[in-house]
């Protein structure tokens, strides 16, 4: 295992066990593609580059998943993984590029190669360092994509804007741009599959974890009624913050979110959203000293979670100024705009079945978010059961849920 892999594994969110990652495929750097090049785009989702990043046998996939405590009972195939570079749009609708991980099942007996493949859109959770993205680091971010591919489906796992090899800074929790990057990754994946001599069936399965759970629901909403060439067959997000205003923000104050996680998520959210909404003109308006002088630099995409957490206090009240603390409790202005813009991912009527996976032991994204999502869907006449994974922490919720989701996707017709 390389030193780089150890650093990535150590940086999996607090409370998670470090992964003994198996470096089973060689990583090859993708060429940089500028936004200027993208301005001559043939269209969103146009594929610019395909770079092989891993090639694993069935046994190697099983070992990788077992090390990550994901379970290997659904593994049927080895996998081939690629970094895709494709055209998309930025937060203002301008041309840019993004990268993502595309994974195909393989079989020496030819069983997987000769059939049309369903496609899983697998959107990842919160990441701060750009090199943690699924298309770059062979660690936690690849566990779920490999699991679904090894179960027999193609997988599109976008890095989002500003992560992986894409330009700029990641607009954390900007649902709109996460959805456009994810949607365009689907288009790029269809082209990439054809280049590998494989065909996609058009059946689409949506999943994602944490931030990616919210993105999965919002992507389903975006695709509904569109002539995208894909038909959503099932939706199974895990532990998503679907209700920032009604659940996640209040949980920062009532003890449902632990202090370390609350500080980490909130500071990341405020710094990223301030680039999109008028939250503050100077960091000192929102953050106490000495954090005001360092917080924006910490979230530049080049710092890891351990470094960031070690540079910030242990509670939200120590992080922000008294006046901003009260503003968080009673949002208005740009802060209210930011929250409203990123809520509502469950306020629609899916035509495909939905299962909402969550855990009552989660103190990062409390299970109330899933219950709120279920209530929104019920308002549209859709019954979406909340699949409680028990008294486990945030990171374990996806490890428990992902194999169940793979089995469910296989059963959906």
Give a verbal description of the structure:
- With 413 residues, this protein is of the alpha/beta class.
- It has 2 domains: 3-241 and 344-411, 3-Layer(aba) Sandwich (Rossmann fold); 244-341, 434 Repressor (Amino-terminal Domain).
- 38% of the residues lie in helices and 17% in strands.
- The chain contains 16 helices and 9 strands.
- The strands form 2 sheets. It has a 7-stranded mixed β-sheet with strand order 1-2-3-5-4-6-7, sandwiched between helices. Strands 8-9 form a two-stranded parallel sheet.
- A hairpin with a 5-residue loop joins strand 2 (78-89) and strand 3.
- Helix 3 crosses helix 4 and helix 5 packs across helix 6 (211-223).
- The termini are far apart.
- Residues 1-41 have low confidence and may be disordered.
Overall pLDDT level: 90
Helix content: 25-40%
Number of strands: 9
Beta content comes to: 15-25%
Name of the CATH homologous superfamily of the largest domain: Alpha/Beta hydrolase fold, catalytic domain
User: What structural class results from the helix and strand content?
Assistant: alpha/beta
Annotated CATH architecture of the largest domain = 3-Layer(aba) Sandwich
Shape: globular
In terms of per-residue confidence, which ranges show pLDDT below 50 for 5 or more consecutive residues?
A: 1-41
Radius of gyration: 20 Å
Strands ordered across the widest β-sheet: 1-2-3-5-4-6-7
Compact summary:
By secondary structure, the chain is an alpha/beta fold. It has two domains: 3-241 and 344-411, 3-Layer(aba) Sandwich (Rossmann fold); 244-341, 434 Repressor (Amino-terminal Domain). The chain is built from 16 helices and nine strands.
